[in-house]
Amino acid sequence: MPMDQQLDCPSAPHQHPEARLLGVVLEEEGEARVAYLDKGTALPDDFDADALGIDPGHALRFSAPCANHGCGQWRDGGCGLGKAIIAQLAPVVDVAPSCTLRKTCRWYTENGTASCVRCPQVTTRAHPSKAVHVPRSAYGPHPTHLTPSPTPRPERGETVLR
Ligand code: SF4
């Protein structure tokens, strides 16, 4: 893969202007499980999250172009969230699920199928016991000026802190 290839974030906020629908969050024995769509689907221009009557992060997964060092989760030249998920969550499936994002997925590109077997449990819905915390970089220097990120700083209580 070319070093300069644009990769995609597999857990993007629906507010991202280039957000695409990646999957639907189902529930399996009380646990969230993402069912990945056969096709990445752009959100319609008139997509109204409020009309769903539920936080979109409870029901849907979105992808969007990775903001690289412009994202609040960027650590040491890569995605800190992808690394934290591997460190803090157990696999929930035996094989990588069929997924339209794989060729450009930031997590898969950096971590391979170790990300994919954990990915279906990732949602942004409130569940304090399952929060994934992205540690600060152990290596300096830390950036002092971050550009505005389409993946905002985490809020308390999310399953995966965006
Ligand atoms: S981590 Fe794997 S399963 Fe999840 S979005 Fe990326 S390629 Fe798809």
Structure description:
There is one protein chain. With 162 residues, this protein is of the alpha+beta class. The protein has one domain (8-44, 51-130). Helix content is 14%, strand content 20%. It contains four helices and six strands. The strands form two sheets. It has a four-stranded antiparallel beta sheet with strand order 1-4-2-3. Strands 5-6 form a two-stranded antiparallel ribbon. The two termini are 26 Å apart. The model is unreliable at 139-159 (pLDDT under 50). It binds iron/sulfur cluster (SF4). Residues 10, 96-97, 99, 101-102, 105, 107-108, 115-116, 119 line the site of iron/sulfur cluster (SF4).
Question: What is the topology?
Answer:
Elements: E1 8-9, E2 20-28, E3 31-42, H1 56-59, E4 60-65, E5 74-75, E6 78-79, H2 80-88, H3 106-111, H4 113-116
The structure holds iron/sulfur cluster (SF4).
In a nutshell, what does this entry contain?
The two termini are 26 Å apart. The chain has one domain (8-44, 51-130). The protein is globular, with a radius of gyration of 15 Å.
Portion of residues in helices? 10-25%
Radius of gyration: 15 Å
Q: Name the shape in a single word.
A: globular
Instruction: Output the helix-strand order.
Output: EEEHEEEHHH
Low-pLDDT sequence parts = 139-159
Keywords:
single chain; 162 residues; alpha+beta; 4-stranded antiparallel sheet; two-stranded antiparallel ribbon; 6 strands; 14% helix; globular; binds iron/sulfur cluster
